[in-house]
Amino acid sequence: MGGFGKISGRHLPACCFPILHGLCSFGISARLLQRQVGLFPHIKARFAGTVVPGKQLTVKAWKVDSKTILFESCVDERVVLHAAAVTLA
């Protein structure tokens, strides 16, 4: 049981497994895109799900025009970052 469950006396299933912080999965996705297209001045995304440490994060990207790339990040075909876009310099 996690620390919260011991202290509060509440035994919630959500306390039993760790999740990756959303900014970490966002940063990993940004880094993967940066390796492919180089530096970019703007990125945005909406968080759509949780990532468990150790799971593989897959980034799918589509170039819309010369300055915009849309992408989504998935774990086991489940979207965890959506409505995401990178603006190129």
Automatic annotation (TrEMBL):
Keywords for the protein's UniProt record, in alphabetical order: Oxidoreductase, Peroxisome
SUPFAM superfamilies, alphabetized: Thioesterase/thiol ester dehydrase-isomerase
Pfam families: MaoC_dehydratas
One cellular-component annotation, GO: peroxisome
Domain (MaoC-like) ranges: 18-79
Cell compartment(s), UniProt: Peroxisome
Domain of life: Eukaryota
GO molecular function, one term: oxidoreductase activity
Keyword presence, Oxidoreductase: yes
Main location: other
Family listed: Belongs to the short-chain dehydrogenases/reductases (SDR) family.
PANTHER family in alphabetical order: DEHYDROGENASES, SHORT CHAIN, SCP2 DOMAIN-CONTAINING PROTEIN
Name of the featured protein: MaoC-like domain-containing protein
Source species of the chain: Acaromyces ingoldii
